[in-house]
Structures are given as structure tokens and as C-alpha cells.
Specification:
13 helices; single chain; 336 residues
Length: 336
């Protein structure tokens, strides 16, 4: 592999001239530039990113940790982050933690060793060590979607309590009174907040007693939603509507309802949360709460660049507003 010395020798210029041409750090005459560029093409020279990063103290890379790469919600956020990174002159290193705390810790250390300029983290659910790991990092960091208590990092998330309340109020407005909830893992803040929104809406409608036997928990997966819906349909407390705390579980719940012979929404209304792209293509299309995923990803990158390029030191927390999108999976309850 050709080195910078080889290029300089071939172009009959100094090593510093080659460096200035490659990095565009100083004026170089047209002839010298042309000679260097010709030598680079002939020799197939590729500048060392490591050497350049040591000199400039920047790698032009960002690292991102997500808990589940098979979840379309995270995939859509990653797409927004990667697009904005590329447009800003940065590349993205993506790590899937698979919701495993140990893997999350290993990846954080690896990214720090690779000297990424900034980190975007969607944390795993049960990692008591994450607080200490983040406190020890000097790399600019933005948390997305999931809060980490007592960590002073930038944060971008959706108003989950408001979203859960909005979903439940939609069902109440249609005339439903027995509204079940399929929540996510008990240790994840988005799940707890969405469930709280469901409780708030029921309390405002003076239906608190009905909520005591209408809450199920699952794992934010389509199989988990399928299993939870099966349990609901086998329970003695049959709801007329179900608020499912993410769209993947909502898709699984739809499948379980169809398998049981129920018509959606005539026999049972379903509403999800996230508005992943697949939600428009279920049968029937899923009513859901929209998270502004494109804006979440762009804000995360912009907040990192404010720290990396502009030197911002204060902590920012951005709470984005959810929206209701009504499709065909919700309707007024059928008259017996």
C-alpha cells in the first residue's frame, strides 16, 4: 500500500505539500496540486484516517447504540440520524446492544477507544452500570427515547405520558369504557410513561376502578403483543378496546385477534404507539400515536454538533409532542 512518502517522491514534492493537498490546509500551486493528485491516482494512495484524526483531534465519526436493530422504530430513527450525519460530513458507527447491558458496556468502551466525536445512545432497560459508564465518558453524548436517571446528558424524547393519554382519550371519545393496556417492560421509562398516560385518561373519565384488572406487560415485540392479546382474550375481563404501547406489539395483537375470529374494529378497537411505516399496511391499518422520528434523529445530530463544533456546554432536554393519526383499527363499540 502506497504511503504519503511514496506520493511525495512520485510527485517530486515535499511530504508537507502532499499533506496540504490532501487536507486542504494551505495554498498549493496549481502545478504541484495536479502532480500530487496524479500521483495519488496512479499509486492508489488512501490517506490514513487514524493519522489525520490524531493531528486534527477529530475523526468525523459519530457512534450510535440502539437496543434492537430488528425493531422498525429504531431502524427509522437510525435512518434519520445517518442521513443527517452524512449531510453534515460525518460517518456513523452503529452498534446493536440487543438490550444486553454487558454488550452495551463493551460497545461504549469500543466507541470511546475509536475516538468517535460524539455518541447517540438509546439505552437498554436493565443496566445499573450505565450511569457510571456515562459519567466517566468525556465524549459528547445525547440520549434518545429512554431517560437515564441522574445522568447530565442531552436528551431528546417524545412526551410519552401525553401520548398515552391522547390514545386513551381517543378511545374514550368513541364511547369505550373498558380499555385495556398492553405495556412494555416494567423497567423502561417510555413504557411506564405511556401507561401513566392511560391511567390519567381513565382517572379523568372516572374509570380508575376499571383499570385495575386491564393492564398487561410484554416486551415491545410483535410476538409479545400476540401473547398478551391471547391472555386478554382468555381473561374474564373482556375490554372493548386496547391501547398497545408500541406498534410492533400492536401488529402482534391484531394477529391474535384475527386468529381468535374477532373483527377489528367492529368487535375490538386497537390503537398503537410510534407510527412505524408498517402500521399503514396492517389489516386494518393501525390507528396510532405518531412519534416524530425524523425530527428526533436530526435533533440528536444537531445537538452533538453544537457541542463538537460550537463548544456548547449546557445540558439540553427536548420534549417533542406526539400526534394522533386515526386509521381503521378504532371505532365506536358495537351495540350488543
Amino acid at each position: 500500500m502506497a504511503s504519503i512518502k511514496d506520493v511525495a517522491r512520485h510527485a517530486n514534492v515535499s511530504i508537507s505539500t502532499v499533506s496540504h493537498v490532501v487536507n486542504r490546509t494551505r495554498f498549493v500551486s496549481d502545478k504541484a496540486r495536479q502532480d500530487v493528485e496524479a500521483a495519488i491516482r496512479i499509486l492508489g494512495y488512501v490517506p490514513s484516517a487514524v493519522a489525520r484524526s490524531l493531528k486534527s483531534n477529530t475523526t468525523k465519526t459519530l457512534g450510535m447504540l440502539i437496543p434492537n436493530c430488528s425493531n422498525p422504530y429504531f431502524a427509522e430513527i437510525v435512518r434519520a440520524v445517518e442521513d443527517h450525519c452524512f449531510a453534515s460530513g460525518y460517518t456513523l458507527i452503529l452498534c446493536n446492544t440487543d438490550d444486553e447491558p454487558h454488550r452495551q458496556g463493551v460497545y461504549l468502551q469500543v466507541l470511546a477507544q475509536k475516538r468517535v466525536d460524539g455518541l447517540i445512545i438509546i439505552s437498554t432497560g436493565e443496566d445499573s452500570d450505565l450511569h457510571d459508564l456515562l459519567q466517566g465518558l468525556t465524549t459528547p453524548t445525547v440520549l434518545l427515547d429512554r431517560e437515564v436517571t441522574h445522568v447530565h446528558c442531552d436528551l431528546v424524547e417524545t412526551a410519552n405520558v401525553q401520548g398515552g393519554q391522547m390514545a386513551t382519550e381517543h378511545l374514550l371519545a368513541l364511547g369505550h369504557r373498558r380499555i385495556a393496556c398492553i405495556g412494555g417492560p416494567v423497567d423502561l421509562s417510555p413504557s411506564a410513561q405511556r401507561i401513566q398516560g392511560w391511567r390519567n385518561a381513565l382517572a379523568a373519565a372516572e374509570l380508575t376502578d376499571e383499570a385495575s384488572d386491564l393492564l398487561w406487560h410484554s416486551d415491545f415485540s410483535s410476538q409479545g403483543g400476540f401473547n398478551a392479546m391471547q391472555e386478554i382474550l382468555q381473561s374474564p375481563h373482556q375490554p372493548s378496546a386496547v391501547f398497545v404501547c408500541n406498534d410492533l406489539m400492536g401488529i402482534g395483537a391484531l394477529s391474535a385477534a384475527h386468529e381468535a375470529g374477532l373483527r377489528i374494529p367492529q368487535d375490538l378497537s386497537l390503537i398503537g404507539f410510534d407510527d412505524i411505516e408498517l402500521a399503514r399496511f396492517t389489516s386494518p391499518p393501525l390507528t396510532t400515536i405518531v412519534q416524530p422520528k425524523q425530527r428526533i434523529g436530526m435533533l440528536a445530530v444537531d445537538m452533538l454538533l453544537e457541542r463538537i463544533q460550537a463548544g456548547r456546554t449546557d445540558t439540553k432536554q427536548v420534549l417533542l409532542q406526539p400526534e394522533l393519526i386515526v386509521r381503521a383499527s378504532t371505532a365506536s363499540p358495537s351495540t350488543p
